[in-house]
Amino acid sequence: QMAPSVFCLLIRTIRTARTQAEEREMIQKECAAIRSSFREEDNTYRCRNVAKLLYMHMLGYPAHFGQLECLKLIASQKFTDKRIGYLGAMLLLDERQDVHLLMTNCIKNDLNHSTQYVQGLALCTLGCMGSSEMCRDLAGEVEKLLKTSNSYLRKKAALCAVHVIRKVPELMEMFLPATKNLLNEKNHGVLHTSVVLLTEMCERSPDMLAHFRKLVPQLVRILKNLIMSGYSPEHDVSGISDPFLQVRILRLLRILGRNDDDSSEAMNDILAQVATNTETSKNVGNAILYETVLTIMDIKSESGLRVLAINILGRFLLNNDKNIRYVALTSLLKTVQTDHNAVQRHRSTIVDCLKDLDVSIKRRAMELSFALVNGNNVRGMMKELLYFLDSCEPEFKADCASGIFLAAEKYAPSKRWHIDTIMRVLTTAGSYVRDDAVPNLIQLITNSVEMHAYTVQRLYKAILGDYSQQPLVQVASWCIGEYGDLLVSGQCEEEEPIQVTEDEVLDILESVLISNMSASVTRGYALTAIMKLSTRFTCTVNRIKKVVSIYGSSIDVELQQRAVEYNALFKKYDHMRPALLERMPVMEKATTNGPTEIVQTNGETEPAVLETKPPPSGLSCRSAAFLFSTGIPSITAYNKNGLKIDFTFERSNTNPSVTVITIQASNSTELDMTDFVFQAAVPKVEPWRAAYSDRLRASCKYFLISELVMAAYSDRLRASCKYFLISAFM
Amino acid sequence: GCLRQQTWKIHFILLFSRQGKLRLQKWYTTLPDKEKKKIIREIVQIILSRNQKTSSFVDWKDLKLVYKRYASLYFCCAIEDQDNELLTLEVVHRYVELLDRYFGNVCELDIIFNFEKAYFILDEFIIGGEVQETSKRSAVKAIEDSDMLQETVEEYMNKPAF
């Protein structure tokens, strides 16, 4: 009717283009023709040209020069023009362009047009793309149409009102009167859109929600009629009457029943009825069941109903249709906290989903599996999850590894099992393990005192063949450094002890140092491990000294610094070396989930909130005692331009847990010195982690310490910085 | 105070061929043209690379894509994360049925050569990302009646525009 042959001809022509360049050329030619036609203000061809433009726009070409033309079409008397004009407006215009406001008047007129299809076009356009200003201007018109008896218009007005409310929430109130008998309608379109409108209002305003609670009985009745009614060809979908409306009613009931006992009770029966009577052979029935389950779980339903809902989800899990399995897992993930036991019953089916081919299903199954691990099922579950870790896509490995570590820590049935599990993860997914896992694991291993020999042996064997997985190598290096003596003396009880010499151990650590696969951090671990072995090994101390001195000129600054300090340890501070490199004590974490908070207590005299238990007897006490019993020699920290600063250290007589550091500053010049500032620098690391920071231990940087601060920090320092080397330098 | 706000509307609908050519785009949110193009490219690529064994749902940014292939056309709906995916599949299916009823055994060519009709039909089914009509008959009848309102060539030529 719009001379379709000409329009089709254009499309046909463009489709004959064989290359992108050819197409572009055709389009450019056509656009030029269209532009000149627009300039000529030709009313006859405007519609056709805009239609052509819209086609080209869909192909990806710019069409903004047609925006005003759309407005002219909308203003035209011809229905054909209006139809294309409104379509063009919806495609080419949006609220970010000022020109869209020019539509407002046209829309206002068309909302009052004598032809309902014109009114419909206006309502649709306003409801799809109306800006806040347009909504404000036209809300009154929409409200009027919301009260019309013409169901064709009423349903559109309802959705238009929804859009207005979304754009300008303050206008919600004005639509309240019109909602009075919306649900009395027989027309499904009006019913559906009315439910959408009521839902929107209830979601946005607690007052509206309270006001509309009285509709629950009516909604229940409508839903019941839909279920009980006979076959209605108009609304039937595979034997179910108007599933769209059913779902929206279920959703509105959910919102009304939430946190309200009476409403929840009023809908209990209908929910049970839908849950048990809905046909499950097709997607449509399951869509309704799904919504029903969501509603049951969200309102204050009785436990029987909740179990019914979870069982529906359990059945979903067994469905051949992967879409159904997908939604089941999503929902179960939402309910696993609140209905844990009910979900547990479906554990094996959930675990089976780990083997699904769909990535989204796998992810959900993994998350759900972790949520279901407990003390009773941990062995079986970990087996499945470790297998999953082995075979899953790389995108899962980091999360899976972290999840396994967490679950193992919470529910490990034995220390041996725990270490084995950690080993398995490190060797399977060693390069995907997160950085923060390494200190966690080190702490875990340290605290499993009876497993030290076993652990170091397993770790040694693990990196012997392959030292490319950084987290594994870091943990292994650290362990070897700590427990290397157990390794060479073959003390392992859990399994057959291996025969390994001190040189062999140093070989592997040196290989790590040399390897270009080793990250700088890893090299640091290896070097420190080698250093520690100088007090644990007996035959190879010279070799160690040699290695350490070589790295004193490493181009890696970190490594160089450590090596220099370790050299100093061999030379100037050799008497401190044994105690400094002693076994790390068992350390308590303040919280079980992740690192503790760093608390800045600068200036406070009370130690921070962190629970630092007194160091257990044995190793740590010995270590702590060392530092303060033999005393640290005084140091001249600064001596320049006549200013000399000396540090002296003394155990307090009244409180042995306090160390007093005294600074003596002297001025040997003739002039006064002013603006002399003291600053205390304390390394900012999480306490328990700091204990394992060998860097910190080996070389606590340079600090000026005021007496007060030191006293305040002493407990914290002891708990957090076990050993420190104070360098004389400014 | 305000309750937690949950909108369940459809954010956008895309139709594209197996070669990734766009056949229809309906946006129920405001975005710059450039952004739309980027999104389309991204989503087309994601969906075309999915194999048969996967579900019809893809987590994408903070939305969910629900897609289904009918003959040579992919229909893709972007919904909120909390929305009912299974129902969205029914929404997509209903749209296909409406097209089929109107065009009679609809195929991709119908959508190409009569794309404006595809939009008109969609606009009778969905407004602002929400379903407005659940009766197949009513939606199609409205289009057919509107078609009757369109002027014939002669009428069009003779009728004044303003």
Map the helices and strands.
The complex is a heterodimer of chains A (730) and B (162).
Chain A: H1 4-15, H2 20-39, H3 43-59, H4 67-75, H5 79-92, H6 103-111, H7 116-129, H8 132-145, H9 151-167, H10 188-204, H11 206-212, H12 216-228, E1 236-237, E2 240-241, H13 243-257, H14 261-277, H15 283-298, H16 303-317, H17 322-335, H18 340-344, H19 347-352, H20 359-372, H21 378-391, H22 394-411, H23 415-429, H24 437-447, H25 452-465, H26 470-488, H27 502-514, H28 520-533, H29 541-550, H30 557-571, H31 577-580, H32 619-629, E3 635-640, E4 643-651, E5 659-667, H33 687-691, H34 694-698, H35 707-720
Antiparallel strand pairs in A: 1-2, 3-4, 4-5
Helix pairs in contact in A: 1-3, 2-3, 3-5, 4-5, 5-7, 6-7, 6-8, 7-9, 8-9, 9-10, 10-11, 10-13, 12-13, 12-14, 13-14, 13-15, 14-15, 14-16, 15-16, 15-17, 16-17, 17-20, 21-22, 21-23, 22-23, 23-25, 24-26, 25-26, 26-27, 26-28, 27-28, 28-29, 28-30, 29-30
Chain B: E1 10-17, E2 22-27, H1 33-48, E3 57-60, E4 63-70, E5 73-80, H2 85-103, H3 108-113, H4 115-125, E6 126-127, E7 130-131, H5 136-149, H6 153-158
Antiparallel strand pairs in B: 1-2, 1-5, 3-4, 4-5, 6-7
Helix pairs in contact in B: 2-4, 2-5, 4-5
GO cellular component, one term (chain A): AP-1 adaptor complex
Membrane topology (chain A): Peripheral membrane protein
Family (chain A): Belongs to the adaptor complexes large subunit family.
